[in-house]
Each structure stands twice: as C-alpha cells, then as structure tokens.
Write a structure and sequence with these properties.
This protein is an alpha+beta fold. The protein is 35% helix and 21% strand. The strands form six sheets. Strands 1-2-6-3-7-18 form a six-stranded mixed beta sheet, sandwiched between helices. The protein has a four-stranded antiparallel beta sheet with strand order 12-14-10-15. A hairpin with a 6-residue loop joins strand 1 and strand 2 (64-69). The two termini are 15 Å apart.
Length: 442
C-alpha cells in the first residue's frame, strides 16, 4: 500500500497541473460561461488517462458526462460528481483570481477547488494512480458527472433515464457520491443517507392593494395576519414541531449500530442538546422551517397600512419513511379553505426525496477500510442533515448509494477564497486508489 503514497507523490505535479486547467475552464452553470470548456476538459482527460468510453448526455443547458472504464469486470461501481461551479460574487474579497489556481497556506485556491471540481478530480486521479501501478481496474467503473448541480440538478433525473435507456449504466452495483465536506476535525466521513427537501411558497391575497388602517381597520382583512394564521395551522411555534396530521408517521428510527456511529462523531459546539440528541435531530427527525416572510411596510418610519398581500417561503426536510407527494397533500388539505376560495396560493418549488442505504451493504465496510488505509481513521454519518439528489440513483437506478465527501470543512464553498488543503487532496486521491486495491483482493 505504500506504493500508492509514493505514486501520488511522484504524480503530484501532473495532478496539480490538471487541477489548474480544470479551474481555469470555469464552468459556471448559472450563466453558461466556460461550460463547454469544462466538459471538454473532462472528456479529453478521461480518454487520455483512463482510456474511458465517454458519452455526452444533452440537457436543457450543461451536458452530463457518462464514462465507462475497464468494462466487463464482475462488479460495477458508479462515481458521481459535478463539474459546474457557482458564480463569483464579491470578487473584491478574493485574494487571487478565482479562475487561476493559487497556492498559499498549504492550500489550493480557486472557484471549484472544493465544490466540486477538486473532489471530482480526486476521484479521477485516484483511478489514474491505481492504473499506473497495477494496470486494469479490478471493477468496471462508471463516472456520471453533471453540469447543473449548482442550479438545482434540473435535468439529473431525465439524464439518468436517458443514460439508462442507452445502456450506459448497465450492471451498476453501487453509487458513490463525492460532494460535501469531511469532519471539521479533519477526519474523513462516509455518509449513508441524506434528508430530502420540499420547498414551497404560500401567498395570501386579501385586498387588491394596501389599505389605510384608519379608514379600514377592524373592517378589512389583513393579509399578514391571515398568513400567520395559516402558518399556525402547520407549525407549533412554541416547540417548532409540525402540526400536519400524520407528518411523523412511518419515520425510520436509528439502529443501535447507527447510534454507536453517532456517538463517535465530534461533539456539537454551543448546543443545548446532548451529542446523541443533537445528531438524531439532524439526521432522523424531519423539520418544517420558515425561510422568510414578506408583507406590508417595514421602513424607518411608520406607514399605517393594512397589507393586501403576504408571502412566506418554507422548507421541509424529510427523512426516510416520508414521501414528498404525501407531505404536499397534507399541506394542501391544511390550506384547503383558503386555496379553494382563492384567498391563498400555494406553489411547490423544490421536491427532493430522502435517501438512505443499509449500513450492512458490503461496499460500506470496503470504503471504511479504504479511508482508514489512506488517512488512519474514518467516521460514519448514518444520515446527512442536508439535501442532495441521491434518491435519483436509489429510485431510478435501483442501487444503494453511499456518500464519500472529499472537501474540507473549511473549503468556503460558494464563497470567496474557495479552497482545498493540499494534504486533503492527496488523501482523497489515496482513498480512491486504496478502494481499488482492496477490491482487487476480494
């Protein structure tokens, strides 16, 4: 296994050069700037260094890339990442050009270093490392790299369906997702699931326009007050719990093994909850949350009006056992009187199902070994509190999904001075190479 460390060290300049070119390609999905350059870079890289069979899947904007490496092996593993990046905001806060790789403080800096170009490239470099040492991979590897993640993975489901129909995803046994971050204490993490997300907007229309509170107070309805009444039907504002009937029915509780893994996670900082309760709330408990409310006047001086319109944005984090459509039906029923008489409007904006794989699937133990070989330790998160579209692989491809985040907790994703510590990049590459080495001995 020391050969892997030595090979990564000897290939360091190559991998750094590849990262530099990848960052320079930009690939901002919101505007489309550099998308063709970024996707072309990946296609050329995969063909040149991994002899990959590469297909582009057309979407409404950035193409998805599907690659197959060393076909015909008895086992097939799919790796996912995304090559698009967020736009650069607050450019004056960057200490270097966001699209020119910089090195300082033992870190690489540039837009996408952490989210998700650096992680995606670490996957590829890990495969290159193994092939340089041992030749053909011990398993067939499928790579699925999308270019729309930063705009909500708009066509991910349809892209996967297209790839499946074309036979590009045949035989996949497991999907490994690399996005997100390792533990703040520097230990690498394997995550077995994530909460889903349901985002929606409620708009109340009481009057055609704002009214004078002196002329219409006590005789005209107030949209802001009505909106609060509607929210009170759905949320207990004292406890924060959801009031929708049967909202908590069917929720899957953590196993003893999952609780043991939770007990090994870093202790939360400044939390009123015990470690176990803290993580159970984040991983196994759904939430209902108000993102924002807009209505009336909140300027420096008083404006005595009765608001005619009020809007609230909300999100619900779902856990395994809940389904988006069922929750949507509950919300519609709770607001039915106002929806039926058109005093309220309801619009669903985001719908992502939760995902959770069994801790007993063989790839979990294999990944744990790979991470320990490469870094010395490994944490297991039964569920991530956030929302990513892992359900697509679970539902549309029918395979277990495991997340292997490869970004540092301090990566500044979506912000100025986004970065990847150099040692973390090297560890990431080593994890993938060790994974292949362990699979070769199975």
């Amino acid at each position: 296994m020391n050969n892997i460390t030595e090979q990564i060290h000897s290939s360091h300049m190559l991998y750094e050069r590849l990262l530099s070119k990848f960052i320079a390609a930009q690939g901002v999905s919101e505007s489309g700037i550099g998308i063709n350059q970024a996707s072309s870079f990946l296609v050329d890289l995969l063909k040149k260094y991994l002899d990959a069979q590469v297909t582009l899947i057309k979407t409404s904007s950035s193409p998805a890339i599907v690659a197959t490496i060393d076909p015909g092996q008895s086992q097939t593993i799919l790796f996912y990442g995304h090559y698009d990046v967020m736009p650069v905001a607050a450019s004056e806060q960057w200490l270097s050009d966001p699209f020119k790789l910089a090195k300082r403080n033992d870190c690489y800096y540039g837009r996408g270093c952490g989210d998700d170009k650096g992680q995606l490239l670490a996957q590829i470099c890990g495969l290159i490392t193994y092939r340089q040492l041992y030749g053909q991979l011990p398993v067939t590897v499928k790579l699925f790299y999308e270019g729309q993640e930063e705009i909500g993975s708009l066509d991910l489901k349809s892209s996967v369906e297209q790839a499946k129909k074309a036979g590009l995803l045949n035989g996949v046994d497991y999907a490994i997702i690399s996005d997100g971050t390792i533990s703040p204490d520097g230990r690498h993490v394997i995550t077995l699931g994530n909460r889903g997300g349901l985002g929606f907007r409620i708009t109340v229309n009481e009057n055609h326009y704002d009214l004078h509170s002196g002329n219409f107070g006590n005789v005209a309805p107030n949209a802001a007050i009505k909106l609060m009444q509607l929210l009170n039907r759905m949320i207990d504002f004292k406890s924060g719990r959801c009031l929708l009937p049967k909202f908590y029915d069917g929720i899957v509780q953590p196993t003893q093994q999952e609780l043991a893994w939770i007990d090994k996670l870093p202790s939360p900082v400044h939390s009123p909850f015990s470690k176990r309760e803290y993580y159970q709330r984040l991983m196994f408990t759904p939430t209902i949350n108000v993102n924002g409310i807009a209505s009336g006047h909140v300027g420096q001086r008083i404006k005595t009006i009765i608001p005619g319109r009020a809007t609230a944005m909300l999100d619900i984090r779902l856990v395994k056992g809940q389904q988006c459509k069922q929750i949507e039906k509950m919300i519609q029923q709770a607001l039915a009187p106002e929806l039926n008489n058109r005093r309220a409007e309801l619009e669903f904006l985001v719908e992502t199902s939760p995902s959770k794989s069994s801790p007993n699937i063989p790839i979990v133990n294999t990944l744990i070994q790979a991470v320990k070989h490469a870094t010395g330790d490994c944490l297991i998160e039964p569920v991530a509190g956030g929302t990513v579209p892992n359900y697509v692989w679970e539902s549309f491809l029918g395979v277990p999904v495991v997340s292997l985040p490869l970004g540092a907790a301090s990566q500044n994703a979506h912000a100025a001075n986004e970065n990847m510590p150099i040692h973390v990049f090297d560890e990431d590459i080593a994890i993938i190479a060790h994974l292949m080495a362990i699979l070769a001995n199975r």
